[in-house]
What we know:
By secondary structure, this protein is mainly alpha-helical. The chain is 80% helix and 0% strand. The longest helix has 39 residues, at 97-135. The radius of gyration is 23 Å and the shape is extended. The protein starts with 6 loop residues before the first helix and ends with a helix.
Amino acid sequence: LSLAGDPGRLDRAIQDLYPRRKPIIVAMVRQLLTMIGGAAELWFTLWLLGYPIDPAAALMLESLAQATQSVSFLIPAGIGVREGGFVLFGAAAGMTPDMALALSFARRLRELGMGLPALASWQWMEGRHLHRLLKRPEALNAENNASDEL
């Protein structure tokens, strides 16, 4: 119980959700729209690669890709799991393994394209902060003393 918590409390929390249908419906609609958007992205990517597929097959692939990604939370960045999932489930949609891998790598590139600028801006902000601290050694000492007190 110390690790899982109080099951009665969890049951009460779930029971409290039943009368609140609007937030649940809103969450379900958002999840569905996200899935449809991901399927459209997948369909468009395959179209750009010269391998058009049926929109229903794109939706199936996207839903299985999200399920695979959810299961792979123990593996850092899900490396290899997504690729294996696309090869496995892409075969069900009639894709060749090389096209499934190309699709998986295209999606990884999109993630890198969105993630690297965020990391670069974070590094820039931290670098500016450190530069300001190094210009004023007394501020660096005050910050070190404050962290020692914690």
